[in-house]
Design goal:
The protein is of the alpha+beta class and 179 residues long. The chain contains 4 helices and 8 strands. The protein is globular.
Length: 179
Amino acid sequence: MIVPSMLGPVTSYIFEGDPDLSGDTHAIALGGLGEVAFWSRRHGFGFLAPGLATLDMPYILNTAPPPADEQIALDLLNFPAAGIEAFAPDGQPVFDRLVKRLKPLPFGSIYGTTPVPPPLEGTSVEHYVVTEATEWLEAVYTSINITLVDWSREPAELRRVGQPWPKGGPVAAKRGDQP
């Protein structure tokens, strides 16, 4: 868990101009491989995965999402470890090997890939370094586009973050602020 201001500038950059997430979305947790959990006052829980370049917002289309405390309990506190793992090109998980090779992380740091951004096919353990989270995240998100997804839907891809909804497609549920 983090104080939202820790990633405030990166968050503002990512969501600048987004029709649904700009201005009310804040980072609430940071993973050791650069994953970020977000909270949107209008749309609830979101999970940004740098290795996939996706932002999963499971309630953005839902007209009756679970209450805020239930979303946090289900989607953040019970997030599966496999969901925050990254993989080498050979398909093997990297996190435990990074801890062994690079030691535990100091506060505010992550295991970041070099070069940035991480390639979709994965990154070998030798190409990770301990780096300051905000600097690495800024380098990643100024060089890639993020796809807004809801993995529970088919198709999962909804639109690009920062772009309008496609004409004739789904649009975010209209509702007031959540706590």
